[in-house]
């Protein structure tokens, strides 16, 4: 099977966010594989191990993304592709990223494409479905289970807590929800092997794309931090009185009940 | 000027979801005096048209088809694209729900347009329509504008106030026949495992439990409190990882981001990843044995104590309040 994973490099979830010069300050921040993409990588490896084939992990970003791609290779992916747009695209959006990924994938004859259902930074959840549509491929989002049997797939989809069991066929794109699997940590031999695995670096030119072809359709005009929440009131006294006071405050002062 | 804006009325279990009325309000802002056209997709849904009108839609186009009885990406995208083809709108608003998240990017791809996902507000400012949306799960916010193509956004439930319902408003409800076909995904089974009643992402009140809840049974008092307040139960990652509850209840940077009117955190320490998922709630109450717990830093009101004592007492007090009200 020809399996692809769409991966994004994101801020570590532990990081606090700071802004300088109107942008998110990335200096000194730790970066990780977007956690939902990690589920996608793990699932891709499991599907390959059960069905044979090859897993290629693709990321659109800058040269820094190589580190996370190596991690994916160390987990067990076979190949990695970094589409470096740093010199060509200043302010891309989801249209931009999806267009680039679809252009790369259009002649790859992928049987299965996996992605995270959302990235924890931008949080739009658009890129997977957009890529599938551009490739005229069916997709299922927020999946918690995937079974492949020949050319058919049975997928469980999380729908706001309910589960839908969906039957479909390959080629297919799915986006991973938490609970799909337990991503493995790269092993030491895995890390050693990853250094020798192929990591291809491409730019827009290599995909016959011009900057105009991928120009964003939306623009961010301001980034700001939410107002610092002031620590509130910790109630005192007998527990029973505290509870009465709290109910009273919620009813009369905060007016939320 | 003024734009024609389509807004999808999302139907669940035979009625319109609240987020759809909020979406109508957003569509009104985007329309800037132009026409707001409600869209209903499903089986026997045209009867709901008058309710969309009562909440502010000028008229409604419904696509009734047995093939739309359940949501499928292909079925709904075919139907919505048919309505878009007929109406040729300059704006499109959906709720940022499971359905909206799945459908909107496909429509954006087909239109070759941008899409502003998960907007919490929209306003006209300096000749631009400016959408605000959380990034980094609410650790920061961005303001976005559309630079090319139609104004297309999904709106987060519970953030944009719906317009007042006015049953005396009238508007045309027309139907459009669409030949829905070639569905590539087939729903074989739906397993309802969500707690009955209120959906976590739309709930006005959320009662969340953390590691302090200690077990699956430990969630029972939280459920009782949620029932009294008409709220939903959520959880921290710690509680989910410890298998006290299902991952579908997880609130945080991974998991759901919620913004209810009232968030009661029970036995949750308040890791930064969890705070990202709930700190924009209007009022936060923390109940924790540890007075140093991080959660108290974001709480409006705090009680230092054992949740197994405090929560049942709270339930009783709220019951009394309801009786007296």
Automatic annotation (TrEMBL), chain A:
Instruction: Tell me which SUPFAM superfamilies the record gives.
Output: Adenine nucleotide alpha hydrolases-like
- GO CC: one term? cytosol
The reply to whether Cell membrane figures as a keyword in the UniProt entry is: no
Residue span(s) of domain Electron transfer flavoprotein alpha/beta-subunit N-terminal? 21-211
Tell me a Gene Ontology molecular-function term this record carries: electron transfer activity
Query: Keywords in UniProt for this one?
Result: Electron transport, Transport
GO biological processes: carboxylic acid catabolic process
Cofactor(s) recorded for this entry are: AMP
Could you tell me the superkingdom of the organism this chain comes from?
A: Bacteria
Q: How does it assemble?
A: Heterodimer of an alpha and a beta subunit.
Q: Indicate the family of this protein.
A: Belongs to the ETF beta-subunit/FixA family.
- Its biological function? The electron transfer flavoprotein serves as a specific electron acceptor for other dehydrogenases. It transfers the electrons to the main respiratory chain via ETF-ubiquinone oxidoreductase (ETF dehydrogenase).
Provide the protein name: Electron transfer flavoprotein subunit beta
Show the taxonomic lineage.
Answer: Bacteria, Bacillati, Bacillota, Bacilli, Bacillales
TrEMBL record, chain B:
UniProt xrefs under CDD domains: ETF_alpha (cd01715)
Q: What would you give as a GO molecular function for this chain, any one? A: flavin adenine dinucleotide binding
Sorted keywords for this record are: Electron transport, FAD, Flavoprotein, Transport
Does this UniProt record's set of keywords contain Flavoprotein? yes
InterPro entries linked: DHS-like_NAD/FAD-binding_dom, ETF_a/b_N, ETF_a/FixB, ETF_alpha_N, ETF_asu_C, ETF_asu_C_CS, Rossmann-like_a/b/a_fold
Record note on cofactor: Binds 1 FAD per dimer.
List required co-factors. Answer: FAD
Task: Please report the stretch or stretches of sequence annotated as the Electron transfer flavoprotein alpha/beta-subunit N-terminal domain.
Answer: 5-195
Q: Where do the annotations place FAD binding?
A: 211, 236-237, 250-254, 267-274, 288
PANTHER family cross-referenced by the UniProt entry? ELECTRON TRANSFER FLAVOPROTEIN ALPHA (PTHR43153), ELECTRON TRANSFER FLAVOPROTEIN SUBUNIT ALPHA, MITOCHONDRIAL (PTHR43153:SF1)
Say which family it is in: Belongs to the ETF alpha-subunit/FixB family.
Q: What is this protein's record name? A: Electron transfer flavoprotein alpha subunit apoprotein
Q: Which organism is it from?
A: Mesobacillus persicus
Its taxonomic path starts at: Bacteria, Bacillati, Bacillota, Bacilli, Bacillales
